[in-house]
Predict the 3D structure of the following.
Amino acid sequence: MNKHELSCYNTDASRLFGETEVVFFPKNVTEVQAIIKEIDGAIVIRGAGTGLEGGCIPEKSSIIDLCKMNKIIDFNPLKMQVRVEAGATIKELNEKLRKASLEFPIYSSENEISTIGGMIALNSSGARSMKYGNVKDWIEEIEFVNGKGELIKTTKADLMDICGMEGITGIIVSANLRVAPIIERSASIFQTDNLSEIFLIARKIRSEKEVSMLKILSKNVSKLLGFPEKYYLIVEFDSYRGKIRGEEYEELIRKLNNITRILISEGYYNSEDPKLFFDKLKEFVTFLEINNVPYFGDLGTGIIYAFFKDLEDNKRGMVRTAMKKLKAKFGNYGIGILRKDFLDSFDAKIIQRVKLRYDPKNKINKGKMIDIDFSIGKTEDSDSKRKEEFKKEIQEMIAKEKKSEKEKAKIKDASEKPSDSNKKAEQDLINSIMTNRMNNNGGKR
Ligand SMILES: Cc1cc2nc3c(=O)[nH]c(=O)nc-3n(C[C@H](O)[C@H](O)[C@H](O)COP(=O)(O)OP(=O)(O)OC[C@H]3O[C@@H](n4cnc5c(N)ncnc54)[C@H](O)[C@@H]3O)c2cc1C
């Protein structure tokens, strides 16, 4: 590998830069184990490098690139399970599954080059996650090599020691995944100048079984896609209930899959992905509108993607403050390097414990997700003291959770009881989603 090729590993989709020492391309588990045992310095794991928070950025590190471990090891269509190596991309996997009319349903169609390992490491979600959940919901077993070079097989009980841990506990080498039948889908579109109508409809239909996607587009994003400049709610059904079907449906989905790329081509390189309770979404989206921030989002999972140009740090800062105020959680980009400061200190302590159990020398993905504080657990009497602290923190968390559940239930009750006079108007709106179509046939770009 020449210097130029090596430098490609210095960065990822976060656009941060580091320094790569050497890149390894293991072909099997034994080679991964040998690398871990032989290398003393820092090691960074790399899938497709599409992570947005700097999870693949090296610090004079060795890189393990899993692209040569991309085989489908075993496929059992009858059991609807597939065992796949971590370096396979979601596109490669779904191409193979499609021949048996099956699919792995968690994928971001905007980004088909993501690897299975990267998706498991980030516990990614996809466009249809309101119905299909996250990657973890489809995993039967993961095999990974920990920081000591041992091969570990997880059961469902300890899946989260590796899934969602952004590679800090080990290198995922393969996984046994459940898959689903491909479904003939359809969609309906509702467009309006009144944001309240979007949320009214979404609230009413979000718990319907057939609804697999509830996508909101801001006016400026609609315009960029070539649609009339209005708010859009695009409802996808896992059935033929929607009015848009067949080729017209496929074209709509292709268009939606292109949103991020179109925004990037307009200079919107940076984004936030807050996840909010449904009741907070309208307030957040209104804040984005006032500040002229382009966004699209998924009202089913509560994740809103807000976009910024390079010179819009102030605007981004304001949006982050609003996210904090509304108690937004991380959506699906992960923590990486860029969001370590947002991690709750209690969560960081727990993550550190798990990390050090699997990687006591802090070799793998050092500085990602958390900075290890080796003083934790080293002081006199620390164990019993920390157990007490944890117990107290957990009790406080449970009490808080119970209180907020009660409050949420009250708010829900109040908001879901429309007055008689509003009932008919609401029903008319809900019905309209089945009949509304785009004015200009999707306004092809
Ligand atoms: C245009 C665009 C759209 C996107 N849309 C979505 C979306 O809708 N939903 C979503 O969830 N994400 C989305 N993302 C973020 C990202 O693509 C996904 O999170 C994806 O799952 C990352 O996969 P990757 O193979 O590129 O991982 P990488 O970027 O290579 O790695 C991500 C992290 O996982 C670790 N890792 C990689 N492979 C392994 C392994 N085998 N074992 C252990 N750790 C490993 C890396 O060290 C790093 O910390 C998007 C990104 C882009 C650029």
Notes: Residues 382-415 form the longest helix (34 residues). Residues 12-13, 44-52, 55-56, 66, 86, 108, 110-111, 114-115, 117-119, 121-122, 124-126, 166-167, 171-172, 260, 332-333, 365, 368 surround flavin-adenine dinucleotide (CB under 6 Å).
